[in-house]
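Protein 1 of 2
SEQ + STRUCT:
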Amino acid sequence: MPEPTTSQPLYLRVAAELRQRVLAGLVKAGGPLPSETELMNEFNVSRTTARNAYNVLRAEGLIDSQPGRGVFVREHPPARRLSSERYRREIEQIRRHGTSSTRIPETSFTHDHGIAWEEYHLAKTFEVVTPPDHIAEALKLPSHSMVLARHFVFHARSRPQQISTSYLPLDLVQNTPIANPDNEPWPGGNIAQLATLGITVTRVDESVSSRMPTPGESRTLRIPSGVPVLTISRRMLAGDQPFEAAEIVIPSDRVILDYTIALD
């Protein structure tokens, strides 16, 4: 254990030693950590101190506790999100193959995660609602307009990875295949869906921020305490006219946001 300091509680000193082991790679991702009893013996501390040390690391998102098995270094392989490149790929697919269902099915999500279509699952709920003010403004909707709100939970290899609520003007999609949840997941995603309506997406705006997850988000995405989420507000436009707006939630330790900014 590092040299103790009189101002630091004992459980924080134990947590610091365990954190150092994890960050130095002495215990690999998925590897086991000592039990509470083993911590008590190694550091000559009480069970309460050992438990509080693990509570600190759990709140930092470094460890997972598995009932009946023990405590393990948390695994969180990130997915890679390529911003404009990921949407450009979808547009190129439409240019090459149109909206035909004969092409190999994929979306930007399956490509990001490197998974086959069979490893992709989309839980979904559709409803017709009055849009929140910020969504109505984002879609440039006149007052009293209605939207189709599509609530999605994206799964890769049976693990929930992101939550998304996508809003489409009801007048645009009512009585079309897009409004039928049985057609989800849709190869090509939103860009391919809009293409079936004769709309060619020419621009995607995204705004990224971070916050702590709500209790519901933590349960749905299986986020341990201490891990924030990235929230992405997105609009898909054809020219200056927006046709889709979405709010996306992704655990911050599962994603890398890559951006290329051309200056010439």
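Protein 2 of 2
SEQ + STRUCT:
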Amino acid sequence: MARTPDGPPPPPTVQRVRIHYAKRGRLRFSSHRDFQRAWERALRRAAVPMAYSAGFSPHPKVSYAGAVSTGAASEAEYLEIGVAERCDPERLRAALDECLAPGLDVIEIVEAGPGTLAERLQASHWHVRLDGVRPEDAARAVEVFRAAGEVQVERMMKNGLRTFDSRSAVVSIAVVKPADARAGDAPVEGEKPVADAPCAILEMVVRHLTPAVRPDDVLTGLRLVADLVPPSPPVVTRLAQGPLDAQTGLVGDPLVSDRAAASSASLIAAGDVSSED
């Protein structure tokens, strides 16, 4: 029979909130574990009334969804926390933003509605800057990649070297002009591109599959099928992640339904107050 710790159980979760944040600048080189520690410290410093798991080693109820890999920046990172006391999302956003380092920026906090966050994160929209690559060369490589039925690449994983298709996950990929790019044109501090040097910008929408296909896997595919080899490391930024529109191929906002649920709850609460008056 399983043992249980002495004393009362931890307070129950009374509210779940979802946090949309960005990973910018040099913080793109930090690992996911570094970000976990940063969030744990920020939650303590902001005195957030966290809910905890039961057992002999209670842990704060924090769930990370679709975290970007080390080396990439992101404007669309998400996590969910459970709290033991109800919190105002906007006040919580301001408190956490003050406790986090510059470059780890809280964009929005909403109360969680029905359903899980992870199931909404179906695809990502990526911006990839290739310094030293001529746009016309990148465009030719993209055309070859698009025409391929599959593009097998290899990546070392926890269980060893694995081969998988990098083409099937790519919903769309194109070379865009800097003026047409949505974000990510500014280089990381200390990594200014050479004046008058060529630069190609790719934007791609990639489905979240298993195993996950990353932008570097797509770049490996471009190298294999079209010999596209950037002379310097690419600068990768995730612009969005969320539900994938099958008709348009666009990535939507995963928090839309949460905002709608919160708005409906506010209207109902306002109606209840009015009827009592």
